[in-house]
Amino acid sequence: MGEGAEFDVGPSANRGDLVSTEGWAERVPLARRRPRRRRGRDFDRPVFLRVFFIVFMFFTFAPIVIVALFSFNSTPSLQNFTGFSTQWYDEFFSNVGLRESLVASIEIALVTMVVATVLGTTLAFGLVRARSRLAQSSNVLMLIPLVTPEIVAGTSALLLFAQIGIDLSLLTIMIAHITFSISFVTVIVRARLSALNREVEEAALDLGATRMQTLRLIVLPALWPAIIASALLIFALSFDDFVISFFTTGESPTPLPVQIYSSIRFGVTPTINAIGTSMLVISFLILAVAVALPRLLGRREEENVLIGRETA
Amino acid sequence: MTANQTTAANQTSTETATPETTRGDGAGDEAIRFEDVTKRFGPTVAVEDLNLRVRRGEFFSLLGPSGCGKTTTLRMVAGFEQPSAGSVYLDGEHVEDVPPYRRNVNTVFQSYALFEHLDVEGNVAFGLKRRKVPDDEIRSRVAEAIELVQLTGREHSKPRQLSGGQMQRVALARALVNRPSVLLLDEPLGSLDLKLRKQMQVELKEIQREVGITFLYVTHDQEEALAMSDRIAVMDEGVVQQIGPPEEIYETPRKTFVAGFIGVSNLLPATVEGDGVRLSTGQLSRAALPEGSQQGASVHCSVRPEKIFLDDLIEDGMVSVEGTIVERIYLGTTTQVIIELAPGVRVISLEQNTDRSRADDRWEIGQRVRLGWHPEHALVLR
Questions:
Q1: Around B228, how many Cα atoms within 13 Å sit in the side-chain half-sphere?
Q2: What is the H or E stretch that residue A139 is in?
């Protein structure tokens, strides 16, 4: 190929500052670019990705940092940080209504997490293993909760409970949450389960393991990362769900997001920051437990799978 | 057409099975016996009327193209499939209602099917732990098995850290450590590259001789089956076509399918005439006729490529015909010459390249050539 035959690089771009013009760097023939190659400026590491990353991190974490910071502010100002105090936390925890709501939300999220994970996992087994026509259509049916707008799910749940005469309470929220959560668990666990080689289970049977032992010793260990991941997701979804909770909640206690919404109508106080920070801490704790659990049980493999790290 | 083939096939398979079952008398030296076993999956018949006897300590191969029922046969021994009709016996015991985990057989799977979350040692120890073998015995037997497959030093590696050949060895050790009565191998070398496969063939054969366990080996690779087996059952469309030692399967195939599937075979259309056959190209060839051949019946005459000689190598007493060379393929140790006898009738001759100069310029495409074979090497197949 002749020198610059296909595109005019221009005299200034010759040899010296090829790299300075980012757009050109990719199109200049490889042989001429190579001598000036620098680390971190390769064609597969464009600068815009770094910028993109920094902007992304800023918009993700800046609001969180601000909320956490102002939750310790000594004045009610949401603009100026004047000094450190824990008064908003005191206010949050001394408010019986808010405290009960927090406990209620944790309760709902934990029950939803456990029940939906168990039911969703067993459903995944059924859908992957059953080869009937019913199972095929159930696969589609199962996706419906995932695409149903929450407002529809919430109002229809409310109508249903009214129709069959169930009084709204924490129980009705749990039922509604579990219903929409099962699909998430099933989708996640099913993907992992169908990637499992059936021959591995046959190998276990072949080596003298009964069906229950095969499930316990071979299948479940392979599914743990998916099960833990979906349980985490369900906890987070249920813990901060507003729309469905709003429609299915009873009088008192109401879940925290609903409680915050009703209190915010009378004006925003920095207590919101304290509540937000507390909720964040709870979510992080759950995440930490999920990552630490496999390590505590001596199952490094699962931890690696969970956080997507390749094992060497 | 297919119905005729099947009934003919059934006859041969029962023919081969009958003397064995009567001779075997009792279960003393037999590891596996199939009696009139048929396996259907819905409307498709995977295995039809199978009669088979595998002797204790034998390296027995099931050979055939994919979908011929060989893997289904193996899975019926393992207990993953139940026969639709007929009986399977293991060590003389009827095993219809015995689940896989209570059968004294172990399987080496094509995909290896290793337990990803366990290390090499954990994989190998899995079977012994299920059988509640004492801990110190487990330790010594696992170490022994790992040594047998030459993986000492990799005890604590996870499967994903191993190469294909090493995973294959783990799968083998995991099965052998239980000292099963029969080891079932389902195309265990299928995903290895050629060189490693050849090496593992030799190793497998050595290991089998060393441990003395009966091997039931499923493969579609005829070379592999010939190289390793004591006996081979060639299967096609769920039916056993021929059972015998490798030499017999190769030298005296009893069916067109067997002749065509094992090695390269020249199948020339012919008709029975006198005490030989008349080839479709007109030449008359003496040949060993199967019993009950009728004059004028259309048959195939099969001659192995290495038994067809060209020009100056033709000896007295050979059947000789003439043809045109259409292709010459240099294969290293041999040169393959393709000769057209008549339009559409081609034969392959394999010449040993014992003389360096011959390979390069002995033949030219389009050249007329004489070819010949000993009449006893011409097999007549119906």
A1: 34
A2: helix A133-141
> Chain B closest CA to A193's CA: distance in Å?
14
**A261 CB neighbour count, 10 Å cutoff:** 14
Question: In this structure, which CATH number among 3.40.50.720, 2.40.50.100, 3.30.450.40, 3.30.930.10 belongs to the domain B264-381?
Answer: 2.40.50.100
Taking an 8 Å cut-off on Cβ atoms, the answer to whether B126 and A206 are in contact is no
Tokens (6 digits) for B361: 């310029």
Q: Which residue has the higher pLDDT, B306 or B355?
A: B306
pLDDT of residue B15: 39
Domain boundaries in chain B? 2-104+180-256, 264-381
pLDDT (tens digit per residue) in A276-286? 888 888 888 88
pLDDT in tens, A87-132: 888 888 888 888 899 899 999 999 999 999 999 999 999 888 877 7
Do residue A199 and residue B174 have CB atoms under 8 angstroms apart? no
Nearest CB partner across the interface for B109, out of A203, A222, A301: A203
Three-class secondary structure of residue B110 per DSSP? coil
What does pTM read for this prediction?
0.72
The CATH classification of domain A96-306, taken from the options 3.20.20.70, 1.10.3720.10, 2.60.40.420, 3.40.30.10: 1.10.3720.10
Query: Residue A222 and residue B111: Cβ atoms within 8 Å?
Result: no
CB B37 within 8 A of CB B4: no
Neighbours of A129 (CB within 10 A): 11
Residues in chain A, how many? 312
- Which comes out higher in pLDDT, residue B302 or B246? B246
To the question of domain B2-104+180-256 being in CATH 3.40.50.970, the answer is no
Q: Quick: pLDDT tens for B244-301.
A: 999 999 988 888 889 888 887 788 888 888 778 888 877 788 777 777 777 888 888 8
Which member of A205, A217, A218 has the closest CB to residue B100? A205
Chain B residues whose beta carbon lies within 8 Å of the beta carbon of residue A213: 130
Domain ranges in chain A are: 1-45, 47-85, 96-306
What average pLDDT does the segment A32-39 reach?
Answer: 52
Q: Do B160 and A311 touch (CB under 8 A)?
A: yes
Please report which helix (H) or strand (E) contains residue A49, including its range.
helix A47-70
The residues that bridge with B67 in the sheet, in sequence order, are none
Contacts of B251 (CB under 8 A, 6+ apart): none
Sign of the C-alpha dihedral computed for residues A67, A73, A75 and A79 taken in this order: negative
> Taking a C-beta distance cutoff of 8 angstroms, is the pair B149, B173 a contact?
yes
The pair of three-digit structure tokens given for residue A254, joined into one six-digit string: 């109401």
Residue of B130, B183, B186, B187 for testing the chain A interface, max A β-carbons within 10 Å = B130
Contact A210 B116 (CB under 8 A): no
E strand map for B71-195: 85-90, 93-94, 105-108, 182-186
Over pLDDT 90: what percentage of chain B? 45
B349 and B362 Cβ atoms separated by less than 8 Å:
no
Sheet containing strand B30-41, edge to edge, reads B44-55, B30-41, B85-90, B93-94
What pLDDT shows up at residue B28?
Answer: 67
Contact residues, chain A, for B130 at CB < 8 Å: 207-209, 213
CA distance A72 to A95: 17
Q: How many CB pairs under 8 A join A and B?
A: 69
Please determine, for the modelled complex, whether the ipTM score is greater than 0.85: no
